[in-house]
Design a protein that fits this description.
The complex is a heterodimer of chains A (152) and B (169). With 152 residues, chain A is of the alpha+beta class. Chain A is built from 5 helices and 6 strands. Chain B is built from 5 helices and 5 strands; from the N terminus they run αααββαββαβ. A 4-stranded antiparallel beta sheet of chain B has the order 3-4-2-5. The chains are: A alpha+beta (152), B alpha+beta (169). At the A-B interface, α2, α3, β1, α4 and β3 of A face α2, α3, β1, α4 and β3 of B.
Chain lengths: 152, 169
């Protein structure tokens, strides 16, 4: 699963680009100069790492839930025998972005994203009606996000 | 129930978001390419991105590493029952730890769910994640009455969260 070979330069690029990409006319040239490489090499490396899925994206990271949309984390406690069936019902809603099984009595955790809070409430009610089970809503009350800086 | 305020974004900002939320073009002058695509002056695109960075609408500009491919294959959603008076101050401390990717305050659902702080912890192995959770427990001290860690056992669905143009297409 992790048999991707990254050389020293790839790692240096990842570590240098986890934030602070310049807002200038030729930003890649500027970053390349920090790393003592050519602009073209930097571009090729980023392209290859995106293609290899070492990087999942490159660009501005928008603050999803504060751009007028609404997001929540929701959880359910689903009996094992009904797990697949409930999972299908939950996933069938396009507003459900991620859904994970987790090892807890609350064993299904999913993110609901919509244009506004009303839509989220509607999705929660719909899932409760379709499954006959309660959905526990965990909206963010405060964010202490700093951002993961991996030492690649 | 509007918990967090939203940003003031006009049509131009929204067009820039729609054009860049999948990523920046990998060309020598990426902002110029975006500007041309939208029929906007270069400087305006850079200016707007800068303003959104300042306001927090953009968290940062850069790469998002795929932590699985980098060997950070273990992650645990640690959840903590932290004193209401102390949670915001401690949340900032925990969020700043390099192995914590997200840290949030969320409502309790008593009696089933006593936890009000969520911190996503990443490591190369499950043991490493557990060591880091112990380190968090030490930092929180008696302010945390109890904690738990939930590991994902299966991805049931994973699609991106799209922002602009979601309801209009």
């Amino acid at each position: 699963m992790t048999d991707i070979n990254l050389d020293k330069l790839d790692r240096a690029i990842i570590n240098a680009l986890q934030g602070g990409f310049p807002l200038t006319d030729r930003p890649f040239a500027e970053v390349a100069s920090w790393l003592n490489i050519e602009e073209s090499e930097l571009l090729e490396r980023i392209e290859k790492m995106l293609a290899d899925k070492v990087l999942s994206r490159f660009g501005p990271m928008y603050n999803t839930d504060r751009l007028g949309g609404a997001v929540t984390l929701a959880a359910m406690s689903v009996p094992p025998g009904q797990f697949d069936q409930v999972s299908q019902v939950v996933n069938s809603h396009r507003e459900v972005a991620h859904n994970y099984a987790r090892n807890h009595e609350f064993n299904m955790w999913f993110v609901i994203a919509g244009d506004n809070r009303k839509i989220i409430d509607q999705v929660i009610s719909a899932i409760e009606k379709e499954t006959g089970m309660p959905v526990y809503d965990f909206p963010k009350q405060k964010e202490y996000f700093i951002g993961l800086r991996f030492e690649a | 129930m509007n918990i967090q305020s939203t940003f003031e974004l006009d049509k131009i900002d929204q067009r820039i978001i729609a054009a860049t939320q999948e990523g920046l073009p990998l060309v020598s002058k990426p902002y110029e390419t975006v500007a041309k695509m939208l029929g906007l002056p270069n400087d305006l695109v850079i200016e707007r991105l800068e303003a959104m960075l300042q306001s927090g609408a953009i968290r940062r500009i850069g790469v998002v590493p795929n932590h699985y491919k980098l060997g950070f294959t273990a992650n645990g959603m640690s959840v903590w029952d932290v004193d209401n008076e102390l949670v915001d101050e401690l949340g900032d401390t925990i969020g700043a730890l390099e192995y914590v990717s997200h840290c949030y305050r969320r409502p309790r659902h008593l009696p089933l769910w006593p936890y009000n702080m969520f911190a996503m912890v990443h490591g190369r192995t499950r043991i490493e994640v557990e060591e880091k959770i112990e380190a968090i427990a030490k930092i929180l001290g008696p302010a945390s009455r109890q904690h738990n860690v939930l590991y994902s056992t299966k991805i049931l669905k994973k699609t991106g969260v799209r922002l602009c143009g979601r309801s209009k297409d």
